[in-house]
Structure formats: structure tokens, C-alpha cells
Write a structure and sequence with these properties.
about 475 residues; alpha+beta; Adenine-n6-DNA-methyltransferase TaqI, Chain A, domain 2; four-stranded mixed sheet; 15 helices; DNA-binding; Putative type I restriction enzyme; Restrct_endonuc_typeI_TRD_sf; restriction system; DNA binding
Length: about 475
């Protein structure tokens, strides 16, 4: 009963969050663009209402069944077995990847290294198809893409992608990263250093399993090499996985998919809201973004304070260094939200990001609410000039962007009252973005708590009618 109470409570929480509607004043075109997302949200709401009802019925049946036999009510007492993939229900099987998949392929399945080099040429300009890489996933598939022509696309026929396929990086520091192929406006093909897999029954179930603790542990068990970690296709095909009955696979996948869909919906809404904020910025300041003045005439970012990962005290505060994601987490911040950060070193030096929560600025510079009430204006100003900031990097072996580089950016003569007006206009948009990000953190935490319990059978879904 405890596992049902946990899952029911999680569903009730998510259901209530979905029912909450935020009223935001947006231009008509923004509302029209959000219409399809609202329809999807209503669909998710209905799914969670049905799921909650089924939990209630299931819980009632289980309570009533205490006075009845196992034979009359089905499997009430879960029995487990210890296997190579962890403890799982007795009704689940363990098989090799090759026994439960239709396709396991990679880039080199298309020919020898010599033939690949002869027939496949990479291009920076748009062409027939995009090579889907781990770096594209890390960039949220927003570019900059690598393209191939029609001849190369057909030559790579064994690794064509159509959207939704499970992709696993099999070479490099991020070996074992699992993601789904997106749906792009271009044709797509699998890039080197990754494996694509398609399962016979339920891709969604195994996508979640491979991302979970046991799946990642199994992937690590087939990795070889220290300087350049990797695993090969043959060892992956022989890797063991749990095989629940198909109906249970579907139920588990549906529960986890519903959470992911809500996260994706929030991300889509946030993208739209930010586009509106930038549209307002461009409308107000189109003639004054550039000029004879400098950013430093008004404001210069502060430098962060270095904090090594080994010195961080475990906590929930992101430590912003040179990467796109937090370097680690700490128990205190050195900024006040909202705050924008500018990565200082490394390949991503100059990357501008906005945080709705306090962060520890480490190998980065920042502009926070203690420095100005117009953080959103400066975020729009700097983010709209992201390419220009990247181009200002100094140093070859280790690129850098310092506060002085930001201060030297030219800008026009923008009056303080115009900046304040922009802040007033867009604050509701950015506050809604922040609320959605916070909700996504809660949703991800819920999903990550449920994932191992569902994937090990600890939460029994057999009596839940989805």
C-alpha cells in the first residue's frame, strides 16, 4: 500500500499543478502560438484525472482484498528475484539487448572508415540532412548543426533517423548519455560516436530504464578505456535488460511519459514567452542597440568567486562556471535573483544565462538584482548579442570572457526610463518562465524518485488501469 500512496500523492500533486492557470498579458500572435500547447495541457490534465481515478479504484480494491485470497484477487503479494540487472519481480524476465530489439546500429555500420571518408563530407551550410550528435542534444537542438548532402545521406542508409529513436553516446567523457532523436525540419542521420537502438515492444520503457540507475550501471559495465571511454556495438547487444510483461512496460512508460510531457510543455511555453520578451526588446530598441556609447557607461558585470567542486558544501544552489550547465551545487549563493551569468572560461566562454534563483557565480561574471533592478533588460541586451560576445573571446588554448569585454560592447543612447519601461513590460513573462522552471525541477525530482521504484517493480502497476 505504501508504494500506491506514494504514487497517488505524486499524481495528486501534479494534477493540482496542471489545474493552475497563469493569466499573462501577451500579444495576440503569442496567444495563438500558445493555443496548441494549451490543448496539449488540457489533454494531459484529462490523462492525469483518469490516472488518479484509477489509483483510487485500485487502492479501494486492494483494501477490500485483504479479506480475500490471492487466487480470487490476483497477485497481491509481490515476489522478487535477484538478477544481474537488480532485484525484479518474479514475473519479469532477463534477456540480452539483441533478443528484444529490432535494430542496433551506428555510423560505422554503413561501411569501412575509408569508404565513409570518401562518401561523407561534413558541411556547415544547410543541405540534405543533419547529423544528430551528442553536442546537438546538449544544445537543445538549437544548432549549430553539421549537414551532409543527398549522396552522403543515402550512403548512410543504415543509420537514417526519423525522430523518436533512442540514441546512446558510446565514446568520450559523456559515454552512456541517453536521449531521443528530435523531429527537425531537415532529414536526419546518426553521427559517429553513438548507437541507435529500436526495441521490439516498447521503446519508451527502455528509454527510461537506460536513463535510470540500473540502466546506467549496466552501460558502465561494458565501457572500456580510461583516456577515451567507449563501448562497442557487440557488447551493447549482449548487455542484459529486464523484460516485464508488455502491459506492465506500457503502464510504467505512460506514467513516466506523462511527467516528461508536462516538462516538455513547460519548456515550450517558456521558449514562446522568451521570444515575446525579445520581440518587445527589438521593437523598443531596434535603433539604439548599437551606437557610440558602451555598456560599461551604465554597468559592468561583477566577477564571480572561484569555488572548486571539492570545496562545495552539498546543497541546492547551482555553481555557475565555464560550462552550459552548473559545475556542481553548493549550500549558499553569492548572487541575488534574478541574476544573469556570463561564463568566463573554456569553449563556452561568454555564454549568457538567466537564473530565477540565486546562484554561486564561480568561473563566471554576473549582473544581479543587487546591482540593478533591470536584470531582464541586460539579459535581453546581452543574449541578443550572444554571437558578438563569443567572438570577443581571448586566448587560444583556453578562451576567456571577462567583465571588461562586456563593458566594451558598444550600445546606443538608451534612456533610463526606457529601460525601466521594458522591465515593467517583460517582468510577468520572465516571472512565468521562472515559475515553470521551478515546477520542472519538482516534476523531475518526482520522476527521478519514481523511476527506480517503477523500473524494479517495487511499485506494482499490474492493478492500475491506465
Amino acid at each position: 500500500m505504501e508504494h500506491l500512496k506514494m504514487l497517488k500523492a505524486s499524481v495528486q500533486w501534479l494534477h493540482l499543478k496542471i489545474l493552475q492557470n497563469r493569466i499573462i498579458s501577451l500579444p495576440l500572435d503569442a496567444m495563438l502560438e500558445l493555443k496548441s500547447k494549451k490543448m496539449m495541457e488540457n489533454h494531459l490534465k484529462k490523462r492525469w484525472q483518469d490516472l488518479l481515478l484509477n489509483f483510487q479504484i485500485c487502492s479501494k480494491n486492494l483494501m477490500n482484498s485483504k479479506m480475500k485470497s490471492e487466487e480470487s484477487w490476483g497477485r497481491l503479494v509481490m515476489r522478487y528475484k535477484d538478477t544481474e540487472v537488480g532485484i525484479i519481480p518474479e514475473s519479469w524476465e532477463v534477456k540480452q539487448i539483441k533478443e528484444v530489439t529490432e535494430i542496433v546500429t551506428d555510423y560505422v555500420a554503413n561501411g569501412s572508415f575509408a569508404s565513409l571518408a570518401e562518401n561523407v563530407k561534413y558541411k556547415d551550410e544547410p543541405d540534405e540532412a543533419v547529423l544528430i550528435r551528442l553536442v546537438d542534444y546538449n544544445n537543445d537542438f538549437n544548432g549549430k548543426f553539421v549537414f551532409i548532402d543527398s549522396h552522403a545521406y543515402e550512403f548512410l542508409g543504415k543509420s537514417k533517423l526519423f525522430g523518436g529513436e533512442i540514441i546512446i553516446s558510446n565514446v568520450g567523457a559523456k559515454v552512456g548519455t541517453v536521449f531521443r532523436c528530435p523531429t527537425l525540419k531537415y532529414k536526419m542521420s546518426l553521427a559517429p560516436n553513438s548507437v541507435m537502438v529500436k526495441f521490439k515492444e516498447n521503446d519508451d520503457f527502455y528509454f527510461h530504464w537506460l536513463r535510470g540507475y540500473n540502466g546506467q550501471s549496466m552501460l558502465k559495465s561494458i565501457v572500456t578505456g580510461s583516456a577515451q571511454p567507449k563501448f562497442n556495438k557487440t557488447n551493447f547487444r549482449e548487455m542484459l535488460v529486464p523484460v516485464p510483461p508488455v502491459e506492465e512496460q506500457t503502464k510504467i512508460a505512460n506514467i513516466l511519459n506523462s511527467i516528461d510531457e508536462k516538462i516538455d510543455l513547460n519548456n515550450g511555453i517558456n521558449k514562446n514567452l522568451e521570444q515575446q520578451a525579445f520581440a518587445i526588446f527589438n521593437e523598443m530598441f531596434v535603433d539604439s542597440i548599437y551606437g557610440e556609447n558602451f555598456v560599461g557607461d551604465i554597468l559592468t558585470p561583477n566577477r564571480g568567486k572561484g569555488l572548486l567542486s571539492k570545496d562545495a558544501v552539498p546543497g541546492n544552489v547551482p555553481v555557475v562556471a565555464g560550462g552550459l550547465e552548473p559545475a556542481t551545487y553548493h549550500n549558499q549563493s553569492n548572487t541575488v535573483a534574478p541574476v544573469l551569468t556570463i561564463s568566463a572560461s573554456g569553449a563556452n566562454a561568454g555564454y549568457v544565462n538567466l537564473w530565477n534563483i540565486p546562484v554561486w557565480s564561480s568561473d563566471s561574471s554576473f549582473i544581479d538584482t543587487n546591482m540593478t533592478e533591470n536584470v531582464y533588460f541586460w539579459y535581453a541586451m546581452l543574449k541578443s548579442r550572444q554571437s558578438e560576445i563569443f567572438d570577443a573571446q581571448t586566448g587560444s588554448a583556453q578562451p576567456h570572457i571577462y567583465p571588461k569585454h562586456i563593458a566594451r560592447l558598444p550600445m546606443g543612447n538608451i534612456r533610463p526610463d526606457e529601460i525601466n519601461q521594458y522591465t515593467v513590460l517583460v517582468s510577468p513573462l520572465f516571472e512565468a518562465i521562472g515559475a515553470n522552471k521551478e515546477e520542472n525541477l519538482s516534476l523531475a525530482s518526482m520522476r527521478d524518485a519514481l523511476l527506480p521504484k517503477l523500473m524494479s517493480g517495487e511499485i506494482d502497476v499490474t492493478n492500475i488501469d491506465l
